[in-house]
Model the fold of this input.
Amino acid sequence: MRPSDVQRLTVTETVDRYVEMVRAKASTGALAPGTAEVYARDVVTFAALAGPERVLDDLSGEDVDAVLLRFARKPDGRRSRPARPEAEAAAVPGGERAGSGAGAPSQSAASQARFRRSVSAFFQYALVAGWVQLNPMQAVTLRPRHRGGLRAERRALTAEQAEGLLGAARELVEVAPAAGGRPDQRTELRDGLIVLLLAAVGPRVSELTRANSEDFFVNAGTRYWRIFGKGGRTRDVPLPRPVVEVLDAYLRDGRRVLDRGREPRALLLSWRGRRLARGDVQAVIDRVLARVEPGRRRGVTPHGLRHTTATHLLAAATDMDAVRRVLGHADLSTLARYRDELPGELEAAMRVHPLLGPVEGRPRRG
Done:
């Protein structure tokens, strides 16, 4: 039951207690670590937008509406920062990245919906904990709406754009042995591997950064990646030969030079020897993109590469259930949001019809 006496705590005080609670749940297995970090990140953002020193119980539905609107207009930092040697050095106070500006894209409808869910969970807990008399989410009127499909930076890359990015990743791997700079800070093999894994397998960025070297194994001559996904589910995904070759090179040479003994299990290490963070992955993609010729270059996020994997596997008539298993979804219906239209795919499908066979160039009957 809800306590009868409401505690007049500031937004910062309640958020700090809530973050401590969700991380404790994650440590005991009651909450997935990835979910806990999303909740924590979102409520910290909520505090900054609502006013850290305000009393939580004083916030009305109108106040929360204003916070949701500010979040919706908040620049999407994933696409607003330039490439740099290590993204971990680019963080600035307030959770923003250097390079965020007025021209940066605002939050997608999906991000707004996620933020709203996090804030709603926070207030549900606040009601039980006795931090508010009433849940202001019941008076909120704003709802995110999906308009016109995915934003450009979330759409799948075309085959030409994806080939350009993968080609740049492979070239980076080839030049790694001759690269300059300090030998213990070279990340070419690591960067090439990150892009190849994201584009070929389509993991969530959290699954990629959580990966350990021991998660890659051989069975009947095929190399697999055991991916630990949402809800405690695991999946074993076979890796294409080009990815295996880069993985072996990284494990043999690239990881060894980055290893400082701090993270003996982590697959991906920063040049400081720490497990690579989620935010660092975008900087890696941007660095590889800078090597792509301008005509084939288009900005993309890690999640955009997940879209790319799904879209091209499905466009190639890969079995939908196989694609579902590669991506780690429990339901086939979820694939719909990862399926983007590709230029010319309808024309290609009708030129080779499953019932009529190849029809292009077939002589016309009189």
